[in-house]
Design brief:
The protein has helices at about 1-20, 20-25, 305-310, 355-360, and strands at about 30, 45-50, 55-60, 65-70, 75-80, 90-95, 100-110, 110-120, 130-135, 145-150, 155-165, 170-180, 185-195, 200-205, 210-220, 225-235, 240-245, 250, 255-260, 265-275, 280-290, 295-300, 325-330, 340-350, 390-405, 410-415, 420, 430-435, 440-450, 450-460, 465, 480, 485, 490-500, 500-510. It is mainly beta. The longest helix has 19 residues, at about 1-20. The relative contact order is 0.12.
C-alpha cells in the first residue's frame, strides 16, 4: 500500500514537471525553403493569414509576387501581380481580412500618379477588377509618393489621403473614406494654413467610426517642437476642428497618436524637454474626448533618477539616460490607461557624434508638389535596408516599458536589458511585440557565441518580465529580422530570415 502511494506521488511529480514544460515545448519555429530569386536585397512585406494560408508580398527583379505558404510553411503558390506596371510601382499597402486582402498601390505614368486598389484571395489570385481610387498630377523631378493609406482598428474603415503642398503656405488635404468593401463613403477636401517654415504634419489616424485625426507641429530649426495642435475631422464632415495641445515653456520631441476606440478618445504623447536641446525630462500626455470635444488629460510625468539608472545604457549618464530612446508603440487599455514601449536606438559613426535630431528629421519633407507621410520604422519602401553608408554602426539597446493609469499616473515600469549592434544595416536589430492575450511577447536577437539567437521575453499584466526558454528548432544559419515580422493570429508570428544570401520566412508559434 505504501509502495503504491509512493508510486502515485512519483507519477504526480512527473506530471507537474511535464505540464510546467508545455509552454516551452509549444513555442516552436517552422522555416520555409528560400526561393533562389529571393536575394538579400529583395523587398518584401508579410501580409497576413488569409483563408488559412500565410501570404507574403515580394518585389524582385522589378516583378511583384504573392507567395502563399501553408501551415507547414511550404510554398504552395507564387502568383505574379501582373496588373501592377513594371518599374513604376511607388508604394503598396496591404489590408488582410479572414478570406481576402485588399492591395492599395500607387504608380506613375508620365506626370500622373495613380492610386489603384484590387482584391485578392487566400491564394494571391485577383478576385476583383482593378479600381482606380484617385489620380494626382505631379511635376517632373518631384517626389512621386503621393498617397497614404491606413485602416481603422476593426478594419471596418479604410482611409486614403493626399496632401498637396505645392503652395508651401497653404496645404490642401484630400481624403477618401472607404468601407471594408472599398465603397466610397465620403470624399473631402480642405485647406490647411502652414504659417511657419518649419511647420509639419504627423500622427495621421482613423478610428472605427471613420473619424480622421492628425497633428500639426512647429519646430525650432527642425529640432524641438515649439507648438503643436490636434486636428479632427468627422467622417461625414468636410471641415476640420483644431485645438492647441502644447503648454507654453515646454518643448516636445516626436509626437505619437493612438486611437482609443473603446473610450472614444485620441491619445497623444511625446518625450519632452524643459529647455531647448536639453536632456529628455519625461513624458507629455494629451487625451482628447471626441464626444465632449474636450481634453480629459493634459499633464507631464518626470522620469525619476531610479528609472533613469535602470534604463540607461553603458555609454550614457543617469541624467542623459533617455536621450537616445524612442517611443516605439503604445497599447491602450480598456479602462483608458496605456502602456508605452520605448527603445534605446542610435548610430555611431567614426568622427561624427550621434545626433538625435538628425536621426528624427534628417529626411526632406514638404518640399515637393505633394507632402509624403513618412514612417521610419515600419514602411516597406522607406526602410533603411539599402543604406550603404560606410563606418556606421547601428545600435539597439534596452527596452523600457511603462504602464500608466487613465489619469496618466505611473503604475509600474520595467526594463528588458539588451545590447544589439550591426555594421551592415539595422535589419537584425530591434524587436517585435506579439500580444497573445494574457501576455505580451518581446522577440529579438541576442548574440550568443557569435550566433544570433531569437530570444523571447514575456510581460505579464502586472509588469513582471520572464525570459522564456530557447525556442524549439532554432536551426543554425538562420538570422532573423524580427522588427519586420508580423503577428498573423492570436498565437502565430511570421518573421523573415536571412539564410546565407537569401531571404526566407519562418512561423513562430506561441503557447
Amino acid at each position: 500500500m505504501i509502495k503504491a502511494i509512493m508510486q502515485l506521488r512519483f507519477l504526480y511529480v512527473i506530471l507537474l514537471i511535464c505540464l510546467g514544460t508545455l509552454p516551452a515545448l509549444a513555442q516552436k519555429i517552422i522555416y520555409s525553403e528560400p526561393d533562389e530569386d529571393d536575394s538579400r536585397r529583395m523587398r518584401f512585406e508579410v501580409i497576413g493569414k488569409v483563408s488559412g494560408n500565410f501570404l507574403v508580398y515580394k518585389n524582385t527583379k522589378n516583378k511583384n509576387y504573392i507567395s502563399v505558404f501553408n501551415n507547414a510553411m511550404e510554398q504552395v503558390e507564387k502568383t505574379e501581380l501582373d496588373f501592377i506596371p513594371d518599374d513604376r510601382l511607388i508604394n503598396i499597402d496591404f489590408f488582410p481580412y479572414a478570406d481576402h486582402s485588399f492591395l492599395i498601390y500607387q504608380y506613375q505614368k508620365k506626370k500622373i500618379v495613380y492610386c489603384d486598389a484590387v482584391k485578392i484571395d487566400g491564394h494571391g489570385k485577383r478576385i476583383s477588377e482593378v479600381m482606380t481610387l484617385d489620380t494626382a498630377h505631379i511635376g517632373f523631378g518631384n517626389s512621386n509618393k503621393v498617397y497614404s493609406a491606413m485602416a481603422s482598428e476593426d478594419k471596418s474603415k479604410l482611409m486614403v489621403f493626399k496632401i498637396n503642398a505645392k503652395n508651401r503656405k497653404h496645404y490642401v488635404l484630400t481624403t477618401l473614406l472607404l468601407n471594408n468593401n472599398l465603397d466610397l463613403l465620403k470624399r473631402s477636401q480642405f485647406g490647411l494654413s502652414m504659417e511657419e517654415d518649419d511647420d509639419f504634419l504627423d500622427g495621421f489616424s482613423v478610428d472605427n467610426d471613420g473619424d480622421f485625426v492628425f497633428l500639426k507641429g512647429t519646430r525650432d530649426n527642425r529640432e524641438n517642437i515649439l507648438k503643436s495642435a490636434l486636428f479632427f475631422k468627422e467622417a461625414s464632415s468636410d471641415s476640420v476642428f483644431s485645438l492647441n495641445t502644447q503648454p507654453e515653456k515646454l518643448f516636445l520631441d516626436e509626437m505619437h497618436v493612438k486611437v482609443d476606440n473603446v473610450n472614444k478618445r485620441f491619445f497623444m504623447t511625446s518625450f519632452y524637454y524643459a529647455k531647448k536641446r536639453g536632456d529628455i525630462d519625461g513624458f507629455y500626455f494629451f487625451v482628447w474626448d471626441k464626444n465632449t470635444k474636450r481634453p480629459v488629460l493634459q499633464n507631464t510625468l518626470t522620469l525619476t533618477e531610479e528609472l533613469r539608472r535602470e534604463a540607461r545604457g553603458n555609454n550614457s549618464s543617469v541624467r542623459s539616460a533617455f536621450n537616445d530612446y524612442f517611443i516605439r508603440n503604445i497599447i491602450i487599455k480598456r479602462d483608458g490607461g496605456f502602456l508605452i514601449n520605448t527603445e534605446s536606438y542610435y548610430t555611431t559613426t567614426r568622427g561624427i557624434p550621434w545626433n538625435r535630431f538628425n536621426y528624427l528629421y534628417g529626411y526632406p519633407f514638404g518640399t515637393f508638389d505633394y507632402y509624403s507621410v513618412y514612417s521610419p520604422y515600419n514602411s516597406l519602401f522607406w526602410r533603411n535596408r539599402f543604406d550603404n553608408r560606410q563606418n556606421v554602426r547601428y545600435n539597439a539597446d534596452n527596452i523600457t516599458i511603462l504602464s500608466f493609469n487613465k489619469d496618466g499616473k505611473l503604475e509600474w515600469s520595467n526594463v528588458i536589458h539588451k545590447e544589439q549592434f550591426d555594421d551592415e544595416s539595422d535589419d537584425r536589430i530591434s524587436y517585435q511585440t506579439i500580444n497573445t492575450g494574457g501576455q505580451i511577447h518581446y522577440v529579438f536577437n541576442v548574440d550568443e557565441k557569435r550566433a544570433l539567437l531569437l530570444n523571447d521575453f514575456t510581460l505579464s499584466p502586472d509588469g513582471q518580465i520572464v525570459r522564456n526558454p530557447t525556442l524549439k528548432n532554432l536551426d543554425k544559419g538562420y538570422e532573423f529580422m524580427p522588427k519586420y515580422g508580423k503577428q498573423v493570429s492570436s498565437y502565430q508570428f511570421i518573421v523573415p530570415c536571412f539564410l546565407r544570401n537569401n531571404i526566407c520566412f519562418a512561423k513562430v508559434e506561441f503557447n
